[in-house]
Amino acid sequence: MTARLVVAFAAAAMLGGCTQLTLSWADLEPEGAPATPPALAAFDDQPEVATPVDWAARRPLLQRALERHVYGVMPEASATRVVSRRVVNANAYGGRGVLEEYVIAASATFGGVSVAVTSELAPDGFLMSVATPKDAKGPVPVILMETFCPRWSTLPDPGVTRPEGAEDRKGFALSVETYVFGQYICTPPVEEIVARGYAIATIFPSEFAPDRRLEGLAELRRLSAGYADETTRWGAIAAWAFAYSRMVDALETDPRYAAMIAFGHSRYAKSALLAAAFDARIDGVVAHQSGTGGASLNRDKPGESVASITATYPHWFARAYAAHAGREGDMPVDQHHLLALIAPRPVLLGNARRDVWSDPNGAFRAAQGADPVYELLGARGLTVERLDAFDPEAELAFWIRPGTHGVVKEDWPAFLRFLDAHFKG
Ligand code: GCU
Prior knowledge:
This protein has helices spanning 3-14, 52-71, 151-154, 171-181, 190-195, 213-223, 236-251, 267-278, 306-312, 319-322, 335-340, 360-376, 411-423, and strands spanning 77-92, 97-110, 113-116, 126-133, 140-146, 199-203, 257-265, 284-288, 347-352, 396-401. With 425 residues, it is α/β, with parallel strands linked by helices. The protein binds alpha-D-glucopyranuronic acid (GCU).
């Protein structure tokens, strides 16, 4: 094996033991059991949903069920305040954008107890970077972004606040990262996105809940000090979803901005979907390779199982999710409900054929399961019958390309086609 391949396999193994699955292909015809129970079927003690008004009554039941069985309970309230805002670079990204940095104070309330988010760089809150097009004729859509990398890598600029000694991604580590997970795994094509008329806002999600078992669980417990039930305490996916909403709080009244779009890849795609399912101010989602605990159904799934994800990442979900491992068929909710809660707003589900670990087929069946809700609400929903028939104009758009897990060259052009179709004009 060449050195590059060794590196590639080692990095894939670090991502949760998915190596053996990257060698198989996702089928392009939907296959497997349909999403159950149907999104509009009777649920709890409510009869079948027949009208948009019925659906409005159904939404909170599904939200509570997803909290109880998968993600853990979200804060009952929150408070957000922009503490400061400064221009980092008035001529950033090829002169196309203005880069700003915000300090934001935020707190989460559980059981009447409010606890403040704190981070190393902003002890009274967290930092957010925002790149805004300079020559926009009116308000622009904002892509809210959480990535695996710190803010100074997602929106790079020498003026961005960072811990002393924190370096830019470079050298061997950068080559490995981009070789395995694609050119855009950390830094999106910022200049192109800004030139196309979108702002990008980004935070580093680990400032809300560190993506490490012990530290993550400890921080989640600290933030939810007023919450007593260990089996339904929130996990990091929920905390990162909460973080998307705090970005919306900070930006929604700024006249420079129009629609708010939550973008995430993989673990952050799970959070982006959850954020939109719970926060109606999020106008659209690009969820790339969200996989298990994201768009892919829990039932009848190849790829990452509930047992595997909850054992490897015990800090991501409520403990109750782990208890469903091996008995997914008995779960009262599944991930098509998560998508249905976003209807009729546009969602793009990104996938790759060799990313069987993320189960593209299960995501497609979830989209099929959510489609009746989109149609009930007057949207087209999912318009295609095969995984590779990309229709960027559909509200439930499905994108699949060759290759593996990551954000590669052909992904952003597809994301931008979808965004232009829904948020331009
Ligand atoms: C692991 C994990 C996935 C997750 C992915 C990622 O592979 O098993 O559930 O989506 O990491 O976040 O890249």
